[in-house]
Amino acid sequence: MAEIIHWADVVAEDVLEQRKENVVATGITPSGHIHIGNMREVVTADAVYRALLDMEDSVKLIYIADTFDPLRKVYPFLPQKYSEYVGMPLSEIPCPCGNCANYAEHFLNPFLESMKKLGIEPQVYRADELYKSGVYTEAVKTALIKRDEIAAILSEVSGRKPASDWSPFNPICEECGRINTTVVTDFDIDSETVDYTCSCGHSGTVFMQGGGKLTWRVDWAARWKILGVTVEPFGKDHASRGGSYDTGKLISREIFGYEPPHPVVYEWIMLADKGAMSSSTGVVVSISDMLKVVPPEVLRYLIIRTRPGKHIQFDPGLPLLTLVDEYERLNQADQPPDYNRRVLELSKASGICHTEIPFKHMVTLHQVAHGDLEQILNILKRAGYSTDDRRCIKELVDNVSNWLDMYAPPFAKFSVRDDLPPQTATLSDVQKAFLAAMAEVIDEKGDMSGEQYHNLVYQAKDVGSRIHSKMADILECDETELKVNPKDLFKAIYTVILGQSSGPKAGWFLSSLESDFLVRRFTEAFRYEPGDQ
RNA sequence: GGGCCGGUAGCUUAGUCAGGCAGAGCGAUGGACUCUUAAUCCAUAGGCCGAGGGUUCAAAUCCCUUCCGGCCCGCCA
User: Fold this and answer.
1) In what order do the strands lie in the sheet with A182-188?
2) In this predicted complex, what is the ipTM?
């Protein structure tokens, strides 16, 4: 069988057949919380970018925020007074929280922050700045002059016939500030101005530079040429026949004389039980919410291991734990298979936090320490982990903490009981004798490693071991007659500490608890009489 | 009405472009480690590759039809 090549490398190879210098572009409209589906776009772009970098290509990664698009409606998360801003460009609307430069920045900032956490640092452009700086002006002129040709393409490819007063350019009304209520009446190429009338009653003249924007389908194509875009991932909504990529392709070639970028079409991310992520159905998990739970590398891994054309099922419950495990296991493998090695390479990124502490361990630890960071650090130190990188450990602790709060299935949860649980009544004499013997040994030795605890439990079944003979003494029976099943011993431990019959891997679990506490609890359990409570 | 993507083991999937013995991980089962518990290692089982037809010496892969799931266009981007 032929060697399996990662999809990002396949795209990179295809692209390199066309050109040696590339610009990978990605873009999103910051009209609301930017969700995980949008993140597939940037991670996909980043994967292709990295693949191109690895082939010693000259390549840039850029991100364009569509800050000049109008606000479409008063979204549910907006105060009603935003109705007065509907139709105005996002960059010209005040920020909902009052602390950001404008509406667009309010949603853009957390997203840029999330990208940084994911190790993605593209060159960022804002559409309003691009228009205001004048780089679009030539394209605006061309579009206005070739208005009829563009209209013909749109009508032919998309099947939609633009209205007679349609223009590829939407001026911003100087009176009411809206961009979607104006009609172009004339334009002057030399003075670079456009005349318009607005439904608010105003009519006037704006500069092509910053006075408005091209409509989406034309804007997209113009942007390719202006920024030299050669590769661009986009959602399947743009990919269907007659969709914006189809029209953009023709507009780019025939109007702007630019070869359109190599498309990378990606599928939606499905949320378990809730269906596709979509703003209109309200099924939205923001990227920052997602990063509250999933370590960044794992989120990258989830996206990068899956071909862009496939749905991604994302279940933040138990399957997330499996995913994290899978990633960590792969990460520790000496020689992962080729395909996975590549997936792993592309999932890692500089600047991403990474610790050697397994997620599952932290799930146990966090619950033992009731989420207290200092205590967690102490236990980690005792277990021989490096605690130098507090920031990254803290990040993991936060991930685990949020996971336990929001998604953890019941069996993954436990709490160390403050008092001896009543279930202690169900223990047999052998189990109690074992706990008493454990208490003695722990009292003598102090804190032990997870492995030592683990071995201790198993030694209890061996005739001749110290713990075994202690048990025999306590039970006042002959050592050789004492039959012990380790299974019952583990159960006894979980019962007296957690009040349940199973729990996290015992050695590691016990070593994360204070030895004094264990001695006290085990002794108490030994002395416990059902009538006591 | 038109179009796009997906359907491969119980689950998640690779392989489809470029036809050549269907591969992995998880889970399950069995075993090992002087140690089954949410650890590690080894092994085993599990598949009409959604269905039907066609092309071919040879089809998961190419062509046609069809079913299922998801989505898009026909408002706007």
Assistant:
1) A182-188, A193-198, A203-207
2) 0.81
